[in-house]
Design goal:
about 325 residues; alpha/beta; two-stranded antiparallel ribbon; globular; binds S-adenosylmethionine; methyltransferase; Methyltransferase domain-containing protein; transferase
């Protein structure tokens, strides 16, 4: 009895801490005090403080000192595998890339040595502060999504892992349009997605759940939505992406992570008008202009050089 009371007490304390560290819906660790506390923490204690804070968000590690450190190590290793065996197929040393929903930055740091620059963005200021401590690199910048948008910087590749399933259709559709705008013509979008998995409730099913637990989870918990392949293709096409390929992750990589059982969406920024029918089927309209090859500035030159059209299939 005393044990269950103390377990309940722990649960309540954790919930209070999670709520205090959040900044509104689905922005865990976004509270303004999180970066302030980290900045005030002595240098030698910062790594542990960052991991402790990450354990307050349902996105990252479980609480408990040993679990926290082993989870962080597992994260580092799996993100290194994803960078080496998945993303490396599509990246070039002179690419500028955008990592969306970077979280603690393990993937961004693994990608950084392979490219010219990485801008890693997240909605949460707190997680970005943790990422700057845990995963710095000379060519890697951490920014909020809004800060990145204000820079109007463009990139060759946008990628995102373990993020899209947390977005409502409305937020996902807006994000796709933003990524399209951030990509240079012909630029590549690489998204980890969860599709056609009956174990995942769809957004419509969550919204239809009028029970108290369902409503509280939807409103305050970490949102996780399943989608069909058709929906994902349709949303990407509607945002102006084409050459869509949906690939089972297991055909590309063997990694100790949930993503191994899920999919990879590869899509290219198309600068063409799409017909309504093509949008509905996630295809480019017949007779439309082919995708632009990437354009890269010539160092010291006034015009842009046209590079080889990059193939979507791994090289
Ligand atoms: C599970 S973590 C994934 C971290 C990292 N991509 C990885 O694979 O290790 C999901 C991250 O997405 C961020 N996120 C959620 N909604 C977002 C949005 N609309 N735009 C950018 N980031 C978002 C969360 O704050 C969180 O840090």
């Amino acid at each position: 009895m005393a044990g269950s009371r103390s377990a309940t007490g722990q649960h309540v304390r954790r919930l209070v801490a999670i709520t205090a560290a959040s900044a509104g819906e689905q922005n865990f660790l976004g509270a303004r005090w999180v970066p302030v506390v980290l900045a005030a923490t002595p240098q030698r204690l910062r790594t542990d403080a960052a991991l402790r804070l990450l354990a307050l968000s349902p996105h990252y590690f479980a609480p408990g000192q040993r679990i926290r450190h082993s989870e962080a190590e597992r994260n580092r290793q799996t993100r290194q595998v994803l960078a080496d065996e998945v993303l490396a197929r599509y990246l070039h040393p002179d690419d500028d890339v955008l990592d969306v929903g970077c979280g603690p930055g393990y993937l961004a740091a693994a990608v950084a040595p392979r490219v010219h620059s990485v801008t890693a963005v997240d909605v949460s200021r707190g997680v970005l502060a943790c990422a700057r401590i845990l995963n710095p690199a000379p060519n890697l910048e951490y920014r909020t999504v809004d800060e990145f948008t204000r820079t109007q910087r463009d990139v060759d590749v946008v990628y995102s892992f373990a993020v899209v399933q947390h977005l409502t259709d409305e937020v996902f559709a807006r994000a796709l349009r933003d990524w399209h705008a951030a990509l240079r013509p012909g630029g590549l979008l690489i998204l980890h997605v969860v599709v056609d998995d009956p174990q995942w409730r769809t957004e419509a099913q969550w919204r239809a759940d009028r029970g108290l637990v369902g409503r509280v989870k939807f409103r305050f918990g970490l949102n996780c939505f399943g989608r069909t392949a058709e929906q994902v293709r349709g949303l990407a096409a509607a945002a102006g992406f084409g050459e869509l390929e949906l690939v089972p992750m297991a055909t590309v990589v063997d990694v100790d992570d949930d993503v191994a059982r899920q999919h990879l969406l590869l899509a290219r920024r198309m600068d063409v008008a799409l017909s309504g029918d093509a949008l509905a089927h996630g295809k480019r309209a017949a007779g439309s202009v082919p995708a632009q090859p990437r354009t890269r500035p010539v160092p010291g030159g006034p015009a842009a050089e046209q590079a080889d059209p990059a193939e979507l299939s791994p090289t």
